[in-house]
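Worked example

This section walks through a single chain of length 320. The input is the sequence exactly as stored; nothing has been trimmed or padded.
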Amino acid sequence: MQDAMTPISTGHFDLAQARVALIANGKAGRQDTRDRIDYIRARLSPIVRDLTVVPVRKGKDLARVAHEAVAAGNTAILALGGDGTQSAVAGALAGSAAVMGVLPGGTFNYFARELGTETLDAALDAVAAGIVRTRDLGRINDRIFINNASFGLYPQILARREDIYRRWGRSRIAAYWSVLVAVRNVSDPMHLSVTLDQRQVEIQTPLAFVARSAYQLDSLALDGAEAVRNGQFALFVAKGRTRRALIGAALRLALGQSVRGEDFELLVAQDMRIESRTARKLVALDGEKERMAAPFHLSVLRDALRVFAPADPATAGPAA
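Given that input, the structure is written out below as tokens.
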């Protein structure tokens, strides 16, 4: 069995000769983010050859900036932000020789937690230690994702979440509340034709999500983590059709108390093709919405990303 995060070098990444780019998310103008950048600069400037800070104000620019940082000769790219930021940068670095540093700065930080770098200090310690590991990535058509890709209800949840965040600020309680608000307005279920490796199934559901993070599944008490560690996708299909059933499932999911076999049906495959009756569909990738053209082909990219991780794999999340 090959883990989702595999050691490829027990040697030391030569930070003294490294050109490092720090990409900060769109909230770089906030005082707390500026304080984090100053702290990162103070920790790393003495031990790297060169450190360049690149603030990015629009999420859509993250991938472009990361590509430009690699083209400029930076051998390490550090991303400060939540899972959406990490996903955009990881997609830009996939398949390259550059090493990514995952610096948590979001609400849930599943990717950082899976690597064992849940806090900023832990992430900087991993960078300073210079241990490089590889990480599998998910791909849907031409887009990379690190945690999940969702169809149906979840993109609507994200739209509600943005409104709630603007009014009440970012918090996990606000994130969970957005789930209930969106479920209350759920409409008709989707009709999807799904090919799992060589098997085809027809699905009617208001919510389907494809998982690539074993840590996220473990933290939500959902099955499928072992399949993800083995290089497969875990496709979850909501069984509930009524608002009441969906609200109950959403609450149990938020509390990590989902009822196995009752709230969601689990389907596992290494390669998936999802066809929809609509030519374009709103898809949520690691918490960011995007309208994409159907059909959707999902594949696993093995060892596609090089990341800084703790020297002891036991300190990382369940996928390590």
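What to look for: Residues 1-11, 315-320 have pLDDT under 50 and may be disordered.
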